[in-house]
Design goal:
The chain has no helices and 24 strands. It has strands at 2-7, 10-23, 26-33, 46-51, 55-60, 66-76, 81-88, 91-92, 94-99, 105-112, 115-122, 128-132, 141-145, 151-158, 162-168, 176-183, 191-197, 203-209, 218-225, 231-243, 249-257, 264-273, 279-286, 289-291. It is elongated, with a radius of gyration of 27 Å.
Amino acid sequence: MTIVISNNLLAQSCQLKEIKTAYTDGLEVFNICIKNPNITYNENKDYYWYTEFSSIKSTKGGSGGNLLNGNYKFYDTVGNLLIDENYFFGLKDGKSINWNSEGDIIAKTTYNKGEMTYSKHLNEEGYWIEFNGPFLEVGSNRKVYTKYGTLISEEVVLSGFLHHVKIFYEYPQYQMKEEYTTSALNGEYRYGKYTSYFKNGQIEVDGQYSNRKATRIQIGNWLWYNEDGYIENRGEFKDEVILWENGNMRSAGGLMLDPKTNNWIRVGQWRWYDKDETFIDKKYYYYGKEVTE
């Protein structure tokens, strides 16, 4: 069997050979190129290849044997199909599906010439995790569903290693609980607009976080509402940042205006850094007094 693929002006061909390998836990059936085509390997992609001594291996940006090409299947010892996926000259390509021994789908993935463009899998806690778009690229998103298919969170990748997060109540479905922006490197940070909601859809908390990097500092006017939409409390906040002589951040934290004394007092998390802006320590404050987290 010969497959001919056109790639711009260059046509590559690959004569296939079917390989069947039996293991103690099952059987895999796949195709390899008898002779690898003359292709340019992408150093950022994983290529899957085979030799009779090593079986299937992968190498980033290269090949140590005959490239996998076409369909791959893995069956358990009683003949149940567990894995069905496809390859294009060593690169995962197209749809990939995984089943458990009971025949239930536990993962779906789509690749485009070695790049994952979609993934949905069931994790150990019983939640479905879904990725749309290349991993961590701007515009891609991650969604979490219950085992019954109820959406409970969604994250969209923004520039600057930031994620825009929406948290939903399990019931009523699709009713938003929280919305904010956080760092992809550490979910404890917050940036920009923050809003939380009651189950009836009324706003519970409405405020703004500072855009200072690696912080979680409230700024501006914050409002707290009851379920009927009336303001129950309000606060005024600002950030305080001290810099080293070289311009790097030395300390950063939030201040709240005390309505009783009209003085600004420390509140929330404060962080300290050395002259290279390496994190040193953090402390927490409640109405000006240091407290444990």
